[in-house]
Amino acid sequence: MRDKSAFKRGLKRLATLGYEVEVDEAALACQQRFAGDEAQRLAAIHRAASSGADVALITRGGYGLTRLLPHIDYQAVAAAIERGTQFVGFSDFTAFQMALMAKTGAVTWAGPALGEDFGAPAGPDDIMEACFGDLITGQGEGSGWRLSKSAMKSIAVNAGPESANAHNDTYSINNAVLWGGNLSLLASLVGTPYMPVVNDGILFIEDVAEHPYRVERMLAQLLQAGILERQKAIIFGQFNHYQLVPHDKGYNMASVIEWLQSQVTARVLTGLPIGHVATKVVLPVGLPVTLAVEGRDAFLLWGHRH
């Protein structure tokens, strides 16, 4: 946790919102670039599983969870979720979520981190806080967002055989497992026992500081591994903090999306508010959902959890 001020602001904000906050004893541990050594971090995960808390929230999404995957007690974590503890995070937390899903099928949540979101210098985003509150109270029924005009145009021009005209498109995909997260982590898990096998699912992806050509390369890996052809929809979250260069000559994220749409029959959507951005929704990872699209309005719906 590099930003101790954000850590403190996040704790204060959660308390202001009325939450009872318990800080793990290793929350500020540090070894090299990691949040403590492997033993410390494993123990912290397992303490969270035995805490009885309503939510186990990450401080930030830093690198290191892939080292721990062979040693996590997944059954203990799944039992904690069954008892009511919801594990929430994003970015490198994707590795934990995918491994848990692959090993047990347990549902986790893609959502905020303590420092980056609740401890943001300008204050937390209202939508993020509202979505998090819905998770806590069990009132969350889904999330909606607006598809961009440019994305709609590229999808219409490059639609696969199963896609309809995007400008006046109204359709739904029902009872499809929502899964995914950070694209770099998903690509890193291909070929390992920690990558879930999801058929007829809805895959969402996000990443930060990855040039479009690297995004395309990772998508090509998932495509050539046979993962993308098994999905009913692929939803792009936020891809930001990268820099185009002169020799890209017009090659950008829209180019990547157009290329992907030409390769798959799955619906390809963009603009989902998830990733390294202030305005982020909270999404169930591993839960069957409905994707509904009406023109430029898109919705992921999963109903009441309680």
Low-confidence stretches: 154-167
State the CATH topology of the largest domain: Glucose Oxidase, domain 1
Overall average pLDDT = 93
Biggest sheet descriptor: 7 strands, mixed
- Largest beta sheet: what is the strand line-up? 4-11-10-5-6-7-8
Number of helices: 11
Q: Give the tally of structural domains.
A: 2
Tell me what the CATH architecture of the largest domain is.
3-Layer(bba) Sandwich
Q: CATH class of the largest domain, please?
A: Alpha Beta
Shape, please? globular
Strand content is: 15-25%
From the alpha-carbon coordinates, what is the Rg to the nearest angstrom?
19 Å
Number of strands: 11
Task: Please render the helix and strand layout as text.
Elements: H1 4-16, H2 38-50, E1 55-57, H3 65-68, H4 74-83, E2 86-89, H5 93-104, E3 108-110, H6 114-118, H7 126-137, E4 142-146, H8 149-157, E5 170-182, H9 183-189, E6 201-208, H10 212-224, E7 231-240, H11 253-263, E8 267-269, E9 283-285, E10 287-294, E11 297-301
Parallel strand pairs: 1-2, 2-3, 5-6, 6-7, 7-8
Antiparallel strand pairs: 3-9, 4-11, 5-10, 10-11
Helix pairs in contact: 2-4, 4-5, 8-11, 9-10, 10-11
Describe the structure in brief.
The protein is α/β, with parallel strands linked by helices and 306 residues long. Helix content is 36%, strand content 21%.
Would you mind describing this structure in some detail?
α11 (253-263) links the parallel β7 (231-240) and β8. Helix content is 36%, strand content 21%. It folds into two domains: 4-137, Rossmann fold, CATH 3.40.50; 142-301, Glucose Oxidase, domain 1, CATH 3.50.30.60. The strands form two sheets. The protein has a seven-stranded mixed β-sheet with strand order 4-11-10-5-6-7-8. It is of the alpha/beta class and 306 residues long. The chain has helices at residues 4-16, 38-50, 65-68, 74-83, 93-104, 114-118, 126-137, 149-157, 183-189, 212-224, 253-263; strands at residues 55-57, 86-89, 108-110, 142-146, 170-182, 201-208, 231-240, 267-269, 283-285, 287-294, 297-301.
